[in-house]
Each structure stands twice: as C-alpha cells, then as structure tokens.
Queue: 2 jobs
Job 1
Amino acid sequence: MTQAHRGTRRSGTTQAKALCGGFTLIELITVLIILGLLSALVLAQSANLNGELAARLSEVRSQLRYVQLSAMKSGSTYLTIQSDGANYWAQYANATYLLLPGETSQSVSISAKSMVMPAFNLRYDSLGIPYDGTTGNKLSSAASITITANNTNGTLTVTPETGFVQ
C-alpha cells in the first residue's frame, strides 16, 4: 500500500469516528469532576451555617462534663451548674465558684457567646451522679438543655445515673 492510500484510510477513519457522535471518556470524567467540586462547595456552605451551633453545643457539653469530673475529683457534697437564661456558672456547695474551662470570669454571659439557653439547674454529687438542682432529687429521666445559635436549635441531653452528656 502506498503512502497516499494510508493517509486516505486514516482520514476516513477519523471522519467515521466524528460521525458516530457521543462523548469521549476524558470529556465524561471532566464533567464528573466539575459536578463533584460544585456539590462539595454547596455542602461546605450548608455545613458552615450550622458551625456556630455545633461550636456552642460542644463548648457547653465540655463544660458540663468538666463540672461532673470536678465534683468527683473534689469529693464535695455537690457541685452545681446553673443558668438563669442570661448567664451560667458553676458553684460548690459552700458557694465557691468554679471557673469553667475557656472562661475568664465566674459567670458566663450567654449573649456574649451569641447563643440563647434557657434557665436550668443541674447538680452533681461526688460520684458524678446528676440531680435536679432545684428539687435536689436524682434525675429520673434525661435532662435536656436546648441551645439556639445562628437561628438553629440543638439539644444537649444529660442521662440519669451516669450524667453522660450527649
């Protein structure tokens, strides 16, 4: 076969491929990558909307656990963490305040944390068992604390007997 025939055959093959239509594998992969990046961007934006709430829930959860551990470590009759709806604080039975982790004052301003939290009163004994701070009775059911941040609500639940916060 001569050079002229080879060139013709190749160009004929190229024209046949062009007439078949469809997408190449590279084009399909490129489109899938672009769609993946766009969906990841959208998910990241929606996750950021709840980031403030997640941070506040995590912070208060850690502080509740800290109060429970401090009650167990101190051997005190009880250690209370309470909120009046504007502030929250931790206090021993002898009225001595416990400085909560990450805080610089005895009383934590709820509005300064850009959140809303209802009044509550929890008490832990030296074994870490949670009590209703108002009545002084052991928790018979889970205690819930609803926190609102960035117009989104989240709930912390303190389980009876163990005091586990979730």
Job 2
Amino acid sequence: MSMLSGSGLGQGEGRRRRHPVATAFLVVLMMLVLFGATFGAIRLLKGGGSAEPSASGTTSGPCVSTTVTPGAALPKPATVTTNVYNGTDRAGLARTTAATLKTRGFGIGSIANDPSGKSLATVAEIRYGPKGTDNATLMRFYIVGATLVLDQRTDATIDVVLGAKYKGIPDQKTINAALAKPVVVATGNGCPTPTPATKPSGTAKATATASKSASA
C-alpha cells in the first residue's frame, strides 16, 4: 500500500510540476496572437491613410485636350498700350511700325531706339510683365515670329523691340484668320507644367555705335 501510495503521490507531484510550464506556454501563445492582430490592424490603418492623399490629389482629373479659338480669349487692340523700339540700325523702323499698329487699333506709348542698348538679330522681342501676358500674346499675331520675354514690370503695357529679321506686319485679314483658327490646348493636373517665357540667351548682342545713333 505504501508503494502504491508513494507512486501515486509521485505522479501527482509530476503533474503539478508540469502545470507552470503549460501555463507559461499558453500565455506566450496568447501574447503572440494579440501581437499579430495588433500589428495587422496598424498596417491596415496605415495603408488606408496613405491611399487618401492619392485619391484627393487626382480630383482635377488627367491632362485633357480641348479645341479653342485664340482670339476669343484675347483682349482687343484698343485695350493694349505698346511701346515700339528699334533694335536695329535701320532708321525709322520703330516710327513706321508704330504708325501701322496705331491704324490697327493699338495704343502707342514711347517710340525710340531700344532703351536696353541691344541690337537684335531675330525678328523681334515682345517684352511684358505678368499683368500683360494676354496683351503680349495678342501682339505676337501682329509681329509674327517675335520672342516673348517676361520682365518685372508691374503694369500691363508691353514693348515691341524690332530686330534685323523683322519684315513688317501682316494684313489684317491674315491676322483675323489666325486669331479665328481653332487650336488644341491641354488642361488638367496631368499636363506638364509650362516653362515661363524668358529671354533666350544668345538672341541679342550689344549694339554698335552706329545702332545707337540710328533714328527710331
């Protein structure tokens, strides 16, 4: 009896010794399950948060091409005041061009040799400030081939600076046809950002003394 009793007591003690190990295993298992659930929830929340800015950033849509008539959005010549400057050694070029522009309805400001003291080898430059963007765009239909040059002026006036390749102003019928000709423009967030118009390097060189003395 004592041997059986001893054996029974030993088995009972063995079972009691295994209980802490099993309990610890269950605790660790539960911690792993909780950690995994928490980690998954955090990743899900982070993924949902990163998707929102992407969706909101595309509310304006992709780049879309539409057909417009240039003249419809541009000002009338009577609302535009332009200075006319001679950037060549051809005497009287600014005066004759200013007279033609006046007959086409433009307001004329100063008529002189180019104040910047440059001699243009190109057709012309149309200089303008941020407020004169539309005025400069309109003038480019009259001075075909001119380069748009953005400067820091604060009003809407523009300068037409005539260069060596300037040949004259087209007849009004040709200009009206160009203003009425449909063109394709692209709008939307997906469109490339246009580069602001600036004066290209190498299009002008310092004037010689003869150019300085030429009459506008």
